[in-house]
Design goal:
single chain, 58 strands, mainly beta, 834 residues, 31% strand
Length: 834
C-alpha cells in the first residue's frame, strides 16, 4: 500500500471527487510535509489510567450518584475497547466537595474555563481525571472539556445538563462522554482547527440553526434533521475520515501572540480569538513545541479528526482515521505518557472488587492462576481445594464455615495487589469436639477445617488464619471459636500475623508438622502463631524466622514444642503468659532420645514464660540456644530463657551459648523449680555483662544443680539479687546431704556465685572429695568471703538426675530440602555466620 502525497486543494475536494485514498495522508501546504498515521501507529494494546471524580456541594449533596459510575465505565469501554484502548479505573470513589462551585444553591459555576491550563481541582498526575456533575444542577449548561493535551496536567472536566426530552436522563451516560474522551486523545472540534484546515469554508450562519448542516457533496449548508447524525451526514465521513463537532469553522484562530497568549485569555465574547486549541498555544514561548513519533509538530496535526456535535444522538463509534489519530496521540504525546500504562503495569495493577461474595456451594478445585473478585465463602458441606494459585484482593477474606474444608494442597493463597489481603477465617463449634482427619463427611455443626499439605502456602495476609468469624455478632461470636488448622509441610510467609487460635476448651486437634513460618521485617511480620486458652496444639519440626514480636505466643495454653523446631531472629521466640486464675503448661523439648533438640539462634529471648503454674508448668529440655557473633548485643537486654512471675519450671539439659543471661528468673514465687544439667557458655567479647544464671527477688524453692559454666567473658556464673521484701532468692539448701549441687564453675578470674542486695543466707552443698575442683565455689561465708551463703559438705554421693540426652539438632531430609528451597527463593532474612 503506497502513501500518496496530495496538495491542500486536492485534499479539500478528494472525497467529493470520489478519490478514496487507502492511507490517511495529511498535508501541511506551507511545508509540504505529510503525516501518515496508518503506517506509524502501533497495534499494541494501550492502557489508560482513569479517575472518576464527583463534584458536590460541601455537605455532599446534589452530586452525581456514585452507584451509576458503572454506567459511564460501560459506555467508555464499549466505544474504545474494540480499538485496543483500555481504561484502568481507580477503585475508589473520589469527591470534590466545594460550595464555591455553585451559584444560588444549585446552578453550577464554571471556573476559569477560558484558560488553556487550569490547576484548580484535585488531580492525579498518573491518569486522566473525569469530573462529573449531577444533571439537575446545570440546566442550560452544555458539556465541556477542559485541561486537554496542552502543557498542563491531563484531565477532562465534564459538565453536563439534563437531556431536554427527559430531565431524569444524564448526558454523561450517553455518547457525549465518548466524544469528550476523544477530545482528550487528540480529536479536535471544527473550531479547534486553524487556517490550514482543508475543510474550512465560509460563510456559516450565525447563529447556526439546528436545521442547517454542511454537505460536502455540494460544498454548502443544507437543511438537516436536528436529531440526525448518520455516518454520511453533513461534515460526515464523505468529507473525510472524521465526524464533525460543533461547527465554528468560520471563526479563524489567530496566532497565540503576546496579545492573545493562553495565560492571558481574551474576551470570551470574541469567538474569533478565544476558540483556540491547546496545541495552538505551543507557539507561545512559555510552551515547548511537542512533536510526535514522526517528528511532526503537534500544532501541525492533521485535521481529519473532528467528531460529532455534542448531542446524545451523535455517532457512537469511531472511524479508523479517528482511531489512528487517538492511538498516535496516546503513544507519542509527552503529556499523555503520564497516563498510559504498560502491559506489565496493568498486570500488576490492583483490580476493583466486583463481587461482595464469591460463594463456594459445591466441591471446587482451583488448579490454575485465578484472582478472586471478592471475599470467598466456603459454605457448609463443601470443600475448596487449591492446587494452583488463588489471588485475593485487598480487604477480602476467605471464610470457611462449619462443616466445610479449605484444603491447600501444594497451592498458593496470595495477594493480587500491592496491598495485603485479610486472610482466612475458619468457623468452629466451641461446644463440640473437633472432627478427625481426613475431615470427610463433616456434619453441619462440625468445626470448619483449614488443611495444608505438600508445601501449601499462605502469604501476604494480614492474618493468615484465624479460628473465628468476625461476621458473627455478639453474643454468638464465641460460639464459633474452635476451627481446626492442620498443617503438614505447610508454609506461612510474608504475613503480618500467622495463625491465631481463639479459646477452645476441648482438646484441640490442630497441629503443625514440618511447617515453615517466615516473617518479613519490611511489613513487619509480628507473630507466627498465637494461642489463647487452647490445649494440645503441638509443633514438630517447624521453622520460625524473622518476626518482630513472637514465633509462638500463648495465653493460658498447653502445648508441646519438640523435635527439631527452629526459631531464628525473633525478639521473643516462644512466649507463654497467663491470666489469673488460669495457668499455662508448656513443654519445649523432650527427654526422649527419639526426639531431636529444638534450635534457637539470634533471638533476643528464646523462651519467655510467666504464670506456668498449671500441672507440670514449664519444661525446657534438651534445646540448643545460641547467638552468633553478628547479634547486636548492645541494642537491648537478652537471655536464653527468661521466667517471670509465679511459675513451676524445670530447665534441664540445654546448651545455652552467648547470652547476656543464660537463664534469667524473676519473682517466680513459692513453687519448686530447677535449673539443672545445662551447659552455659559465653565467649563473644561483645555480649556485655554476662550471667550464666541470674535470679532476682522471691524464688523461694529455686535450685540450681549439675550445670557447667564456661563464661569466658566477665561473669559471674551465678548472680542472686534480693531485697528487704523479697530476700528468698533461692532455696535454703542448694543440694542436700548425699546429693551436692555439683555445678562446675568457670573460675579463671570469674566469680562463681555472688549475692547482691538483701538475700537470705543459704547452704550450698558440695562433695567432701569433689570429682572436679570446679565444683567448689569460693568467696562465700565459709571462706570469710562477702557472698551470703555457706558451704555444706557431704560424703554420700547420688547420681545426678538429668534425664536422657536428646539427639543433637539435625534436620531430616524433607525439612532440610524445603528449607533450602525457600532460602534459594530469596529467604535469607536472619541468616548469620556462625
Amino acid at each position: 500500500m503506497n502513501a500518496v502525497m496530495v496538495s491542500q486543494v486536492e485534499a479539500q475536494t478528494a472525497f467529493a471527487d470520489g478519490n478514496q485514498y487507502t492511507t490517511y495522508l495529511f498535508v501541511d501546504s506551507a511545508q509540504m510535509s505529510y503525516y501518515d498515521v496508518s503506517g506509524g501507529v502501533s497495534s499494541e494494546d494501550i492502557f489508560v489510567r482513569v479517575y472518576l471524580n464527583i463534584l458536590r456541594k460541601s455537605d455532599g449533596s446534589i452530586g452525581y450518584p456514585p452507584e451509576r459510575l458503572d454506567n459511564i465505565k460501560e459506555i467508555l469501554d464499549n466505544a474504545f475497547n474494540p480499538h485496543d484502548i483500555y481504561f484502568i479505573y481507580d477503585c475508589e470513589e473520589h469527591f470534590v466537595d466545594d460550595d464555591d462551585l455553585f451559584f444560588g444553591g444549585t446552578s453550577f459555576h464554571e471556573p476559569n474555563y477560558w484558560a488553556c491550563d487550569w490547576y484548580g481541582f484535585p488531580h492525579h498526575e498518573d491518569g486522566i481525571d473525569i469530573y462529573l456533575i449531577h444533571s439537575h444542577v446545570s440546566e442550560g449548561t452544555y458539556p465541556y472539556t477542559l485541561r486537554g493535551l496542552g502543557e498542563g496536567i491531563p484531565g477532562t472536566w465534564f459538565i453536563t445538563k439534563h437531556r431536554d426530552e427527559n430531565w431524569e436522563d444524564y448526558n454523561i451516560e450517553s455518547e457525549i462522554i465518548v466524544q469528550k474522551m476523544g477530545h482528550m486523545f487528540g480529536l479536535f472540534r471544527t473550531g479547534h482547527g486553524s487556517q490550514l484546515n482543508p475543510l474550512y469554508f465560509d460563510p456559516y450562519p450565525d447563529p447556526p440553526p439546528y436545521s442547517v448542516k454542511f454537505d460536502c457533496d455540494v460544498l454548502e449548508w443544507v437543511r438537516a434533521d436536528p436529531h440526525e447524525c448518520p455516518e454520511h451526514a453533513g461534515n460526515g465521513a464523505v468529507c473525510g475520515d472524521y465526524i464533525p463537532d460543533t461547527d465554528r469553522s468560520q471563526y479563524l484562530l489567530e496566532d497565540c501572540d503576546s496579545d492573545y497568549a493562553c495565560s492571558n485569555p481574551p474576551d470570551p465574547q470574541d469567538y474569533q480569538r478565544y476558540r483556540r486549541s491547546p496545541f495552538e498555544c505551543t507557539s507561545d514561548p512559555a510552551y515547548p513545541e511537542f512533536e510526535d513519533i514522526n517528528g511532526v509538530p503537534y500544532d501541525n496535526i492533521p485535521f481529519y479528526n473532528f467528531m460529532s456535535k455534542s448531542e446524545p444522538n451523535c455517532l457512537n463509534y469511531f472511524t479508523q482515521g479517528q482511531v489512528d489519530v487517538m492511538r498516535n496521540f496516546l503513544l507519542t504525546h509527552p503529556t499523555l505518557s503520564n497516563v498510559t500504562m504498560t502491559a506489565q503495569e496493568v498486570d500488576e495493577f490492583c483490580p476493583c472488587i466486583e463481587d461482595d461474595e464469591v460463594v463456594i456451594s459445591e466441591n471446587t478445585t482451583i488448579s490454575g492462576d485465578e484472582t478472586m473478585s471478592g471475599t470467598v465463602i466456603v459454605e457448609t458441606g463443601n470443600r475448596l481445594t487449591v492446587t494452583g494459585t488463588m489471588r485475593m484482593l485487598p480487604g477480602t477474606s476467605i471464610f470457611v464455615e462449619r462443616g466445610a474444608v479449605l484444603e491447600i494442597r501444594g497451592g498458593l493463597l496470595t495477594k493480587r495487589c500491592e496491598e495485603m489481603w485479610s486472610g482466612v477465617q475458619v468457623q468452629g463449634n466451641s461446644g463440640k469436639i473437633q472432627p478427625d482427619y481426613p475431615y470427610t463427611n463433616l456434619a453441619s455443626d462440625d468445626a470448619g477445617v483449614v488443611l495444608i499439605r505438600e508445601n501449601g502456602t499462605i502469604e501476604w495476609a494480614i492474618n493468615a488464619v484465624q479460628t473465628r468469624d468476625n461476621r458473627i455478632s455478639w453474643p454468638a461470636f464465641p460460639d464459633y471459636y474452635g476451627g481446626v488448622v492442620d498443617s503438614e509441610d505447610g508454609i506461612f510467609q510474608n504475613n503480618k500475623w500467622g495463625v491465631g487460635f481463639m479459646q477452645y476448651d476441648f482438646p484441640n486437634k490442630s497441629n503443625f508438622f514440618r511447617t515453615f513460618f517466615f516473617g518479613n521485617p519490611d511489613i513487619p511480620s509480628r507473630s507466627g502463631v498465637s494461642i489463647w486458652r487452647c490445649q494440645d496444639i503441638n509443633f514438630v519440626r517447624c521453622h520460625f524466622e524473622d518476626f518482630s514480636e513472637h514465633g509462638i505466643h500463648g495465653i493460658n495454653f498447653h502445648s508441646w514444642i519438640h523435635h527439631y523446631n527452629a526459631f531464628i531472629n525473633i525478639p521473643q521466640a516462644i512466649k507463654s503468659e497467663s491470666s489469673f486464675p488460669f495457668g499455662s503448661e508448656l513443654i519445649v523439648g523432650s527427654h526422649s532420645t527419639q526426639h531431636g533438640s529444638n534450635y534457637f539462634l539470634d533471638n533476643q529471648y528464646s523462651i519467655v514464660a510467666g504464670g506456668t503454674n498449671f500441672a507440670l508448668g514449664l519444661q525446657v529440655i534438651n534445646n540448643d540456644i545460641s547467638k552468633s557473633a553478628n547479634y547486636a548485643f548492645s541494642q537491648s537486654a537478652n537471655a536464653g530463657v527468661r521466667i517471670v512471675g509465679p511459675s513451676i519450671f524445670d530447665v534441664t539439659r540445654n546448651s545455652i551459648m552467648h547470652q547476656s543471661s543464660g537463664v534469667w528468673i524473676h519473682n517466680t514465687g513459692l513453687y519448686h523449680t530447677d535449673v539443672r544439667c545445662n551447659s552455659i557458655f559465653a565467649s563473644h567479647p561483645n555480649t556485655g555483662a554476662n550471667y550464666g544464671i541470674y535470679a532476682a527477688l522471691e524464688n523461694r524453692l529455686f535450685e540450681f544443680k549439675y550445670n557447667t559454666f564456661e563464661m569466658e567473658v566477665c561473669g559471674p556464673d551465678v548472680k542472686l539479687f534480693g531485697s528487704a521484701t523479697y530476700p528468698n532468692v533461692c532455696r535454703r539448701d542448694v543440694g542436700r546431704a548425699g546429693d551436692p549441687a555439683r555445678n562446675c564453675y568457670t573460675f579463671e578470674g570469674n566469680p562463681q556465685i555472688i549475692t547482691e542486695g538483701q538475700t537470705s543466707e543459704f547452704d550450698y552443698w558440695v562433695p567432701e572429695e569433689p570429682e572436679h575442683p570446679c565444683q567448689i565455689p569460693t568467696d562465700n561465708l565459709s571462706d570469710m568471703g562477702s557472698n551470703n551463703y555457706s558451704l555444706a559438705l557431704t560424703n554420700e554421693i547420688d547420681e545426678p538426675v538429668c534425664g536422657e540426652v536428646s539427639v543433637p539438632f539435625n534436620l531430616d531430609s524433607a525439612y532440610q530440602a524445603t528449607l533450602e528451597e525457600l532460602y534459594h527463593l530469596g529467604w535469607d532474612f536472619g541468616q548469620s555466620d556462625t
